[in-house]
Design brief:
Strand order of the largest sheet: 1-2-3
Shape: globular
Radius of gyration: 15 Å
Order of helices and strands: EEEH
Low-confidence stretches: none
Distance between the termini: 41 Å
């Protein structure tokens, strides 16, 4: 089972807390210092958080862009009616 988390965002004073999204959609917080140097939101990490999986990161970015394009194509535009 794939257990590689994705960096969602950095929070807290000086953005030193990383919020990771697990494959099941749950989140967890870890110190930014525990991540590889240069890690940024959108990066997929190894299970041990020691490396960035560049191929998985690129695949996730492509999947996200395709989903955004699909949603944009179905959006009729204009104001939202409640």
């Amino acid at each position: 089972m794939d257990r590689r988390p994705t960096i969602d965002r950095f929070e807290g004073p000086d953005r030193q807390i990383a919020v990771l999204v697990e494959v099941d959609g749950s989140t967890r917080e870890v110190p930014r210092a525990d991540l590889p140097a240069g890690a940024k939101p959108g990066d997929v990490l190894s299970e041990d958080l020691k490396a960035i999986d560049h191929a998985a990161t690129a695949a996730l970015a492509q999947k996200t862009q395709a989903l955004q394009a699909e949603l944009k194509a179905r959006d009729p535009g204009g104001d939202l009616r409640l």
